[in-house]
Amino acid sequence: MLRRYPDAGEPLLCKPVAQGLLNHGYRVSTTRGSYFLKHHLDDSTGDRATIVRQHRATQRLQSLGVPVAPPVEDTEGGTVAEIGGRCYALHPWVDGLHRAGDQLTTAQSRRLGALLGAVHTGLEQVMETATGPAGRSGGCRSPDPADTFVLIEDLLTAARRRRRRDSFDELAEHRLLERRILLERHADRRPPTPCVPATSWVHGDFHPLNVLYRDTDPVAILDWDRLGIQPRAEEAVRAAAIFFVQPAGKLELDKVRAYAGAYRRAAGAGPAELAAAVHRVWWERLNDFWILRWRYCLHDRRADPQFPAVSALAVWWTREYEAVCEAFTG
């Protein structure tokens, strides 16, 4: 791999990086420094053309002052190495720490919102240059509760059939039954289908493990695999629901308010756009059981630790819907 990048030096050490659910990463130490080697495994985003588009976007964003870590170019100016049918990319290693919302002050939360706004406005510039205009509207399909009721029954069956049930299975059953009642009670609040929110290019996976901090400053936004055209305000709401969720499943609304206000100013997004996004993401969360799908259908438990807070958030958000909406729009 490194022979393609002669300026990178000779390899000394290669260690796996623990974080990451979809792809593999390694810290590579060489005679000339440290690098992050990314092994693209996700079939939906791991083809060469998609990866090259991500790389070009980060290169252009860097020229706008957005903190990113574009890939290293090989001797021919390429950024993707294909070996054995798989794609790899070499990035400079960026020292830093991941910070969740409880580690951010209100001022830092405000800066995080402004950063995401800068990402969205920056992508609007560089992706129009690179691939043509993204467009300003697009349809979306909100989850159908009838489908969710079927999924709940399937997951309940899977949780109850486990030979050696543990506390996770007990919590899963409790949350599934609870969510079924909530969906029955709020089925008439399903967002219109199709809906036509404002869409643009977005990062697609903006959360604490994809933002690196050095002291109090964000120094790199990582993992652009999900770069795509989506409702931008929904990304802002989803990100806040990950950054600022507490273990008990509540959002730190003071920090959300600071973050959202800065995002609106930086992105030029109005309160109505954010309110509509809050409603769609709330409904999405109410119908979503991806962690239980991973556990019971794919037999993959890597996301299990996230379940207590994520499942509690859907319940709390439903109860505090007006307060959450005000935090994003006020």
Radius of gyration: 21 Å
Going by CATH, the architecture of the largest domain would be Alpha-Beta Complex
Looking at the structure, what is the overall shape?
globular
Instruction: Give the class-level CATH name of the largest domain.
Output: Alpha Beta
Q: What is the terminal-to-terminal distance?
A: 51 Å
State the domain count: 2
| Main pleated-sheet profile | 5 strands, antiparallel
Strand content: 5-15%
Order of helices and strands: EEEHEEHHHEEEEHHHHHH
In the sheet with the most strands, the strands line up as 1-2-3-5-4
Residue runs with pLDDT of under 50 for 5 or more positions: 131-138
Share in helix: 40-55%
| CATH fold call of the largest domain | Aminoglycoside 3'-phosphotransferase, Chain: A, domain 2
Number of helical regions = 10
Q: Could you name the CATH homologous superfamily of the largest domain?
A: Aminoglycoside phosphotransferase (APH), C-terminal lobe
Oligomer: single chain
Mean pLDDT: 92
- The count of DSSP E runs of length 2 or more, i.e. the number of strands, is 9
Estimated structural class: alpha+beta
